[in-house]
Structure prediction request, 178 residues.
Amino acid sequence: SYQWQVNTGAGFSNVSATAPYAGGTTATLTITGVTAAMNSYQYRCVLGSCSGVINSNAATLTVSVPVSITASPATVAVCEGTSHTFTVGTTGSVLSYQWQFSTDGGTTYANISGATAASYTVPGTMIAQNGYRFRCIVTGSCGPVTSAAAILTVNPLPVFTVGSIPSVVCISDGLVAL
Prediction:
């Protein structure tokens, strides 16, 4: 005879004859509709034979929650020379982050070396980076997902020149053009 048991943290007890379990008294236990709450549950089979009862080794169920992006990095306009931090929000079992950038409007992307956290800071933006797109690939045990791309607009600092300045200005003088 077979009797499957589950340990949810309070010791082993017989599995129910209702969902999510099927086959609780057969050689194969089937679990359908596994939930994240079932992570780390242990299962074993109690075998009854003419020589008595034998417990199988326990098997631990590992439930991986697929990664999903809850907040993509936001498009931003900054002044030349300032830093900006892009951030991605996620849920699920995240294993890694990899930030990428595109210089051709999102046709191709390249990995940014060392950019492997939920946030990436572009240090000291340059005019040459105007229009770059930034995105993050988030990998979980169920596979990778890619955020939407954010566009970086880099506005140039104002450039001005001062014309000739008179060496002496009197209070009685009119307007002085600089």
User: Anything to note?
Assistant: The two ends are 100 Å apart (CA to CA). Residues 8 and 41 are 5 Å apart (CA to CA).
